[in-house]
Backbone:
């Protein structure tokens, strides 16, 4: 936005409408109900961020020899998938099984695409 001006047009707010509820339920692009996410993180800085800004009220992080396991009840949404993909190879989805399989298939597809190696030539 570069310019904002008030107007004389009246607005109508639907009865029972709550902006916070709308943002949390509709703008996260929900796919299904809440899920019990279980994910492995291997970088300490990622876990420190999660401790500072938890993704759920029931978030639990446990340390093991190789890294940290995050468990949390979260909305099954496209926003969750974008968030997880943002960690790249630093996260592994452990559960639920359907979500893990989705990430397995995505990783395999990416590996095949990058292994081909000649896409850049054909894109020019």
Residues:
């Amino acid at each position: 936005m570069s310019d904002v001006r008030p107007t004389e047009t009246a607005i109508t707010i639907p009865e029972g409408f709550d902006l916070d509820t709308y943002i949390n339920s509709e703008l996260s692009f929900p796919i299904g109900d809440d899920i019990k996410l279980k994910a492995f993180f291997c970088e300490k800085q990622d876990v420190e961020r999660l401790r500072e800004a938890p993704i759920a009220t029931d978030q639990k992080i446990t340390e093991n020899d190789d890294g940290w396991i995050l468990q949390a009840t979260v909305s099954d949404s496209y926003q969750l998938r974008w968030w997880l993909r943002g960690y790249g190879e630093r996260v592994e989805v452990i559960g639920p099984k359907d979500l893990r399989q989705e990430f397995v298939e995505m990783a395999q597809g990416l590996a095949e695409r990058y292994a081909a190696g000649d896409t850049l030539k054909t894109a020019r």
Remarks:
- The mean pLDDT is 87.
- Strands lie at 30-41, 60-63, 68-77, 91-95.
- The radius of gyration is 20 Å.
